[in-house]
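During the reporting period the student researcher (J.K.) took over the structure-prediction task from the postdoctoral fellow and processed the backlog of single-chain submissions. One of the processed entries is reproduced below for the supervisory committee.
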Amino acid sequence: MVSVSPTDEGRAKPCLIPEQMILPLVIASALFLENMDSTVLATSLPAIALDLGIDPIILELAFTSYLLSLAVFIPISGWMAERFGVRHVFRVAIAVFTHASMARAFTPTLPGFIAARFFQGMGGAMMVPVGRFVLVRAVPKSELVQALSYLTLPALIGRVIGPLIGGFLTTYLHWR
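J.K. obtained the following structure tokens:
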């Protein structure tokens, strides 16, 4: 069924996405990106290490910093959501994650790469639980299971295709 939304002239214009699907799709997109990003780096490590002029084993610090920030900020994200509001924290988490991703791509040094990866983990740690919290608060209880099911598939697909995308980009383009 296609929903209808009014236009400026008062005529009805069909919408491709029902209004109640927009919030779950936004949250699912954020979860997809976070889950994909957590695995995309694995296949790109040798190219990144070569570009930065370091041993690939040392670059494992990037994985460690990401996991450390997840471990620290997932528990804190619930408190932050209650204190500052779930939608505000979710928006900030997306901004932190996006800016850290750009910083990671443009950093020429190992410490900069590790720091950017830490901030990426911070944004990702806040996106996942707070995104679900936004959905739980916004969706009526009768539709909650269906809305949460929309988050599962993109998150799983992100983890599966992350290494494939990382390998493809590194092989045919550049890791940045």
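The committee noted the following: Residues 110-138 form the longest helix (29 residues).
J.K. will present the remaining backlog at the next meeting.
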